[in-house]
Amino acid sequence: MYTLADNTMKISQTYAAVNAKCPKCRRGDMFANGMYSLSSQKMNETCPHCGFKFEIEPGYFYVAMFVSYAFNIAQMVTLAVGLYILTGSKNPWIYVAVLLSSAVVLSPFNFRYSRVVLLYWLTPGVHYDPNRSKDDYKRIG
Ligand SMILES: [Zn+2]
After folding, report:
1. Global pTM?
2. Is residue 108 part of a domain?
3. By CB distance 3.0 to 4.6 Å, which of 20, 22, 106, 118 could disulfide with 47?
4. Which residues surround ligand 1, an ion (CB under 5 A)?
């Protein structure tokens, strides 16, 4: 990340997505608090830097449930196969306990990154706009 002569920040898409930054300006935070903070998960309504409205239309983040579902399946299959390779156990309760507790522990991660994936890669028309990442960008929404 560096600032160009014309006051434009160059921020990579990977850096912005991993840090849950606004997909339009890659500077403002999408979430109001940390992933594993003690307070509940809270998403900013608009980008604090450029004013982009994250929930593009009412109920938009219902679609993130499908992304979150895919994350959950991938995590559970990986864990179950890994657990079987490591322990060789045929006791179903070990799998139930590990998979259910992992679903709880990973839920803040899935909540956050399902929305990031939805806004970054599954929403047509939402693209990075270098003008929005300027320090003096006027918030217009
Ligand atoms: Zn923004």
Report:
1. 0.85
2. yes
3. 22
4. 22, 24-25, 28, 47, 49-50, 52
The CA-based angle 67-33-100, given to 5 degrees, is 45
120 inside domain: yes
**Residue 29 CA, ligand 1 centroid: distance in Å:** 8
Q: Is residue 141 part of a domain?
A: no
pLDDT above 70 (res 141): no
Exposure string over 104-114, b if 16+ CB within 10 A, otherwise e: eebebebbbbb
Average pLDDT, the chain: 90
User: For the residues of 62-76, what is the DSSP string, one character each?
Assistant: GTHHHHHHHHHHHHH
Residue 59 lies in a domain: yes
Number of compact structural domains in the chain = 1
Is the pLDDT at 39 greater than 90, yes or no?
A: no
Q: How far is the CA of 69 from the centre of ligand 1 (A)?
A: 27
In terms of Cα–Cα distance, which of 26, 28, 34, 30 is closest to 2? 26
